[in-house]
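task queued by scheduler; priority normal; single chain, no ligands, no partner chains; default sampling; output format set to structure tokens
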Amino acid sequence: MRAASDVFDAIAHPVRRRIVQRLGRGPAPVHELVSGFDITQQAVSKHLRVLTDAGVAVWRRRGQENVYRLVPSSLKKVRTWLDSFGHRGAPIVRQRAKGLTYK
């Protein structure tokens, strides 16, 4: 897994998008993030590294664990891009976000 410096690259992977969604609810230690996935802690840590390299998340040492939190301002570039679709693009973006397909 290569490190991503661009927010779009960072959120391109579905696991990383789920991590971002989880961090959107508040900070979380690694063990809590791992429990939400059927992958190893090492794999989650690699995804977290991609997110931190892109500035989407930051971590802080708390006792013996690392606690990650979302950097909401890092997603501004994504928001601006989504807003460029205007009201006509919004339904398509919502369908894609829900995993639906359209014809």
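post-processing summary
- The longest helix spans residues 41-53.
- The longest strand covers residues 57-62.
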